[in-house]
Design brief:
5-stranded antiparallel beta sheet, alpha+beta, 6 helices, 10 strands, transmembrane helix
């Protein structure tokens, strides 16, 4: 009688270590990338954050990028809806201007429609000025800013200089009249666009003439950069007859 052969236990496959499984490989990649990111943050240089408040977002982004800060995020002010982000005005920034931080730090810029609205108003004013230049808001603002006393003084001095050696001009500013506003012509390009015409009685005392020449004085004044100036190209006096001169009040 034969003895049966001993049965061997079934063979089992050895288990793969976790680093050979797909999820293990993915986990290792994630850990390596995380370590690289942390190392990059720790080794990144530190710089001072430029002041970009008051700039448009597009300008601010370029300034920060040139300074080495590439992580810039816009956030609208008080829930404003801003479609033209690059044209919006930066009204606040975090970190604050001048703070020394890593260049990898995220820079948050609070933006507002303020700059966009300024441009829209400027475009509206330009359109309005073209349609009705003498009644535009710009014309009214230019006129309102004119200092009449400074204008009178400037006109008086300029008219006297124009007389030169021929004589002198005596102006009775108490009789002054002024037009509402005018668009100045033939003026220096740097002068204001709108001005006042001041008119008053004047006596031109001319050498060699016994009686003074009666005149109506005309002088243009304008405003620019907060100062009142005289437009010499529109400044003159015109001789007149005595009835017209006497009627001038």
């Amino acid at each position: 009688m034969s003895t049966p052969a001993p049965q061997l236990p079934p063979r089992t496959k050895p288990k793969k270590p976790f680093y050979k499984k797909w999820w293990g490989i993915l986990l290792i990649i994630i850990v390596i990338l995380t370590l690289i990111g942390v190392a990059a943050m720790l080794l990144a240089p530190s710089k001072k954050v430029p002041d970009v408040v008051g700039k448009t977002y597009g300008e601010a982004q370029k300034i920060l990028d040139d300074a080495g800060f590439s992580s810039v995020t816009p956030q609208p002010k008080d829930g404003e809806i801003i479609l033209a982000v690059s044209s919006a005005e930066v009204v606040a920034q975090d970190p604050q201007p001048g703070a020394t931080v890593k260049v990898t730090t995220q820079i948050k810029l609070t933006i507002s429609r303020a700059n966009i609205e300024k441009k829209e108003k400027a475009a509206e004013a330009e359109k309005e000025a073209k349609a009705d230049p003498l009644n535009s808001n710009k014309a009214k603002a230019d006129i309102a800013a004119i200092n009449i006393e400074q204008g009178q003084q400037g006109c008086h001095e300029l008219l006297e200089r124009k007389q030169g050696d021929a004589g002198r001009l005596e102006i009775d500013w108490a009789t002054m009249k002024k037009t509402p506003w005018v668009q100045l012509e033939n003026k220096d390009p740097e002068q204001g666009d709108y001005g006042l015409i001041l008119e008053a009685k004047g006596k031109a005392i001319v050498q060699g003439i016994k009686e003074p020449t009666l005149a109506i004085v005309k002088c243009s004044v304008y405003e620019m950069d907060g100062e009142t100036y005289v437009d010499g190209t529109n400044t003159n006096f015109t001789t007149t007859d005595k009835p017209t001169w006497d009627a001038w009040k």
